[in-house]
Design goal:
Length: 466
């Protein structure tokens, strides 16, 4: 077991309590059997400034080496990441057994590229240089598993296209972490939208009345793995995190493509037509900012976003109306400081068909849990029979699904065991990536559709700025 990197970190000043606890944990958990085994994947995490990096490791995976590598600048971001992994290792129920090797210094990324102790780079943090990191890693023959967004502006988009091309040449994978595809209500909505006897044909819609609407509301203050979130100050700098229109909106654009045109290869040059794009700020007081960052006031680089009322303006909200092939869609993301009591981040989705509309709602009426509604235009005998046939056909895959009549249609009652939540979705998407890694390739539609997705968000950002 190599501890030289830990000694380097100690000498350079990283002396937190969690760091010392981690060393003891690492020494006690190693064994010769695990060290001598070969694994298809060994993870390297670079500058893990977002809690999503830790969620990838919330569970152990048979294909993944328990020895993982962290390269990062010194500071609270990496200490927070190590603390989260340490908490997973020491929890009472289903503890993990990750063994972390770390290097901490300003030259962390060049050091990672030189040493390459693993074959999969996990990226989830500051987005300012993320696309550059992706391109460099692909150039060094490293697979990349990246949190969204992989591009935050049109310049990044061009770099990302080049990275995908080089990934194909070097036979490595570049894949983003699309957790929302694993949300049960989204899965069922997609399935229904492609069940013609229930949904009919997808409506085309118009810019004023889109056929597909997807909206989400997020919160700066929330709980992750049972603890109050601590966000880095740079998260509130759109030059480092990216505007909202290119950040969380990535998930919504992905869902539109995935649900409306499943497994269809999209061509961003001809299949996407932007209509309207806008962006606007959420305003935070210094007290609210301090609560979620544990700081005392705005750092200097955020002062340019502070208005005359001493409120920090964060351009984290965005809306895009566009046409995908022949269907008009609208996606919208909003950020607020804190959710109402008992609530969290919420999602709304509408898909309009010729026979029925499909809605996912997550409001107070739903107790802030996502619920799927099937709303027919004409609830005749044949349509009801088709809906019952649909839910019966899913009885082996999703046992316990029940149709509950409501005034204008049906709610799909979903057993709790299928509601694993946002954190659990990271495990699911990681398992899917590992399947692709072992197969040595992504599905044919994934790369062109990732390119289409990031074209949509980055082109919309340029349009919104005008």
């Amino acid at each position: 077991m190599r501890l030289s990197n830990y000694h380097q970190a100690y000498k350079s000043g990283l002396r937190s309590l969690s760091f010392f606890i981690l060393i003891s944990m690492v020494l006690s958990s190693c064994n010769e059997t695990e060290e001598s085994r070969e694994y298809p994947a060994t993870l390297m995490t670079a500058d893990p400034g977002h809690f999503h990096a830790a969620l990838v490791q919330k569970q152990m995976y048979e294909q993944v080496n328990p020895e993982v590598y962290v390269y990062a600048p010194e500071g609270p971001d990496v200490q927070g990441h190590i603390s989260k992994i340490n908490a997973y290792n020491n929890r009472d129920e289903n503890p993990t057994s990750w063994q972390i090797q770390g290097y901490f210094g300003t030259d962390f990324f060049s050091r990672l590229m030189d040493e390459k102790p693993g074959n999969v780079l996990v990226l989830a943090g500051n987005n300012q240089k993320k696309t550059e990191y992706i391109q460099q890693a692909i150039g060094h023959g490293i697979n990349v598993f990246s949190d969204k967004p992989m591009a935050v502006n049109s310049q990044d988009f061009e770099l990302l296209k080049d990275a995908f091309k080089e990934a194909e040449e070097k036979n490595v994978l570049l894949y983003d972490i699309m957790t929302e595809r694993f949300e049960i209500t989204s899965l069922l909505q997609k399935d229904l939208a492609n069940t013609a006897s229930v949904f009919g044909k997808m409506e085309k819609g118009s810019p004023d009345n889109p056929a597909v609407i997807k909206e989400s509301v997020h919160h700066f203050f929330k709980y992750v793995s049972g603890n109050e979130i601590k966000r880095p100050a740079w998260f509130f700098d759109v030059e480092q995190e990216g505007d909202g229109i290119v950040d969380v909106t990535t998930h919504l654009v992905d869902l539109v493509q995935w649900a409306c045109y499943p497994e269809k290869i999209l061509d961003y040059k001809k299949d996407i037509e932007l209509s309207i794009a806008s962006r606007w700020p959420t305003r935070l007081s210094s007290e609210e900012f301090n609560r979620v960052t544990r700081l005392n006031g705005f750092p200097d680089y955020l002062e340019k976003y502070v208005n005359k009322d001493s409120l920090l303006e964060v351009f984290c909200n965005g809306e895009i109306t566009y046409k995908l092939i022949d269907v008009y869609a609208r996606v919208k993301v909003e950020w607020k400081y804190k959710a109402p009591e008992g609530a969290g981040d919420t999602h709304f989705s509408l898909m309009r068909g010729s026979l029925a509309n499909l809605e996912i709602r997550q409001g107070a009426e739903e107790n802030y849990k996502p619920e799927l509604y099937v709303l027919p235009h004409n609830s005749n005998h044949d349509w009801k029979k088709a809906l019952n046939n649909w839910i019966s056909g899913l009885s082996s895959q999703y046992p316990g699904l029940v149709l509950v009549p409501i005034d204008n249609g049906f709610r799909v009652d979903i057993p709790a065991k299928f509601r694993i939540g946002h954190e659990g979705h990271f495990v699911q998407v990681t398992k899917k990536f590992l399947e692709y890694l072992q197969a040595g390739k992504l599905p044919d539609w994934e790369v062109p559709n990732m390119i289409a997705k990031y074209y949509t968000t980055t082109a919309a950002f340029e349009l919104a700025k005008k």
